[in-house]
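Newbie here. two chains, one complex. Structure please?
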Amino acid sequence: MTDDIRGLTARLADEPGSLAFLELAEALRRRGQLDAAHKVARGGLARYPGLADAHDLMARILSDQGDLAGAFDAWASALQLDPMRTTALKGIAFLYFRAGEKAAAVEHLQRALEVDPDDVSIRQAIARLGPADPEPAGAAPASPEPAVPQAAVASVASPAAAPPQERAASGPFDGVDGGERGLLLVDANGLRLGGRLADGPADPAGDRVAAQLAGVSREAARATRLLGLGTWHAIALESSDGHVVLTPASGETVLVAARDAALPMGRVALLAERAARSARAWLEEQS
Amino acid sequence: MTATQSVLDRVTRVPGVRGALVIAASDGLVVAEQLMDGVDGQAVAALTGRLVGRLVRTAEGAAMRPPAFIHLRGEEGSVLAAMGPDDLVLVAVVGPDANLGLARLEMLDAASRLA
């Protein structure tokens, strides 16, 4: 037993409710001790069923053990908890490739690239696989058994993870899933340019939120610059009542996406990105 | 080791965390800190305190309860803030490769232990 595994084992024994199981199981997996890794990961998952990292880890272990269907299900669970998890998207792409389904593999890699455009390994993998259209019969790698479960495929291909839809012409959020409710486009002066938080002819809550957010883009940009964190990408706010994501739309215009707390924050962030793209196109049309 | 130091120690153990501090949200002042070189605690406290105040008011405007956790994401890292009792906020500055899920869980649990 190496020192790191010994240390992690001792730490987990001292604090069985801690997250040390993640490091320990990964260390065991890397050493090829897959049964031990599986046991540790399974115990951790029982304690933290809502932790995407734990499902991701379990998927890697199952993949190494040759349980590809189990790995697929585990990565699908990780994606349900965190739709922007590129490791899960890459893992599922790998499994599709192993199953001979090149188009689905490329599709998942492209989704991963959308989340992390700077990941060179994703670009290289897409380049190696070529375009997403179906391969001629016989060109794909041999399909391993068992085949990828169709139910899991359906769960991964959720609307939240799907590619953005084309936008219709008239409003900033036309074509965005769910319409404009729960989406706001706010200008630098705290005025609502589009969207609403509530139904009805007036939206006082939307106007109050917009007013509070006057100049927030400038403030966020200043904070990230002064702290050496580069340009600002988003602000996520978690409350027991809901999840809110702010992201820059254009100039100092900010997009606000608000959803019930039942929707995972990662999916709200994804929605905000799509809505911001739609709003940018709309703003360009207006100018 | 005090309870606050223990909380900071726990957060800074998460991979990718460059530093953690406890601030008073209303005035943006540092209460305790554990930072790597190059991280300006006073700047983090002031900027985060201001942002937290604004986002609390934003949540109020939307008829929501105050935020429990805030994440400001930049191109090269993030600022995370977990609300504690008595106006205290646990703040972490993390790099771009940090495990945000782990940091969030640790911070939410640790913030509840601040006194």
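Moderator note: Chain B is about 35% helix and 30% strand. Chain B has one domain: 3-111. Thread marked as resolved.
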